[in-house]
Amino acid sequence: MTKPFTPNDLVRYIYQEMPEVEQELLMQALHSDETLMQEYVEMLSTIEQLDQVLITPSEKVVTAIKSMAHSTGLQKV
Amino acid sequence: MSKRLGPQDSELIAQYRNGSEAAFDLLVDRYHSKIYTTIFLIVKDQKTAEDLLQEVFIKVVKTLNSDRYNEEGKFQPWIIRIAHNLAVDHFRKAKRYPTILMEDGSNVFNSLQFAESSFEDKQVKEDTIELVKRLIEELPEAQKEVLIMRHYLDMSFQEIADQTGVSINTALGRMRYALIHLRKKMKQLNIAYDKTIYPK
């Protein structure tokens, strides 16, 4: 019998917070449940958009961070 | 979320502790965008986010120098936790999330960068990123908080539940509703979905 899965389980699966045994069962469920599969595909597609958003600080700040680390005298030469 | 090539964080830390400035530079290059993004999405202010970013790395350097760093915990979750705590502290001091503080309302978008910029549809991608970023900011606070903590801070749902004082199911539900909200808005705005998944 296929274990019933919820959309919350899909979130756990996508973010790899599901034990392997449960993952196997979920994959089986995805193949037999079109609604669950549709939900899964749409979540993945949305998350793909989130992955595109990356903001960077100014180069000045990055340089300052590196200079700070270099000037602390932490490094053993 | 993505596989990374190059030396492991632990190798870079060991090299840094043995005197390699280049190793620390690589760690900064590896994490500054991710950490800055997570901080910025919480504080919504470029200057504050940059100040907090520097504080994060100052704490990192001090800890590495004092030999209090424990590699068992892994570098990435550790530095992300520092960033999150600093951002939350800022939030508590400010009592609430500030409204958008950009002077001209647009300069922050100028700092957006792309993992790959060689595509001919760069303009379309820029527009999409701006929209997605705006949509994240428009989410209900509880949903936005979980989304940022899970997706950008890499916190587990259990950690999020502990941090926000809700059950893990509530945290999962908030994440799911955040994704549903985003999906609906994206569809309304006609943000491109993967055409292999959604063929015409």
Please give a structural write-up.
The complex is a heterodimer of chains A (about 80) and B (about 200). With about 80 residues, chain A is mainly α. Chain A is built from 4 helices and no strands. In chain A, helix 1 crosses helix 3. Chain B is mainly alpha-helical and about 200 residues long. Chain B is built from 8 helices and no strands. Chain B starts with 8 loop residues before the first helix and ends in an 11-residue tail after the last helix. The C terminus of chain B is likely disordered. Classes of the chains: A mainly alpha (about 80), B mainly alpha (about 200). At the A-B interface, helix 1, helix 3 and helix 4 of A face helix 2, helix 3, helix 5, helix 6 and helix 8 of B.
Secondary structure category of chain A = mainly alpha
Unreliable spans of chain A are none
What's the number of helices of chain B? 8
Q: Which class of secondary structure composition applies to the elements of chain B?
A: mainly alpha
Q: In which range does the helix fraction of chain B lie? A: 55-70%
Beta-strand proportion of chain B = under 5%
In short:
By secondary structure, chain A is mainly alpha-helical. Chain A has helices at residues 7-14, 20-32, 34-52, 59-71.
Which short descriptors sum up this protein?
heterodimer; A: 77 residues; mainly alpha; elongated; B: 200 residues; 0% strand; disordered C terminus
Architecture blueprint of SSEs:
The complex is a heterodimer of chains A (77) and B (200).
Chain A: H1 7-14, H2 20-32, H3 34-52, H4 59-71
Chain B: H1 9-17, H2 21-43, H3 46-66, H4 75-94, H5 122-138, H6 141-152, H7 157-164, H8 168-189
Helix pairs in contact in B: 1-2, 2-3, 2-4, 2-6, 3-4, 5-8, 6-8, 7-8
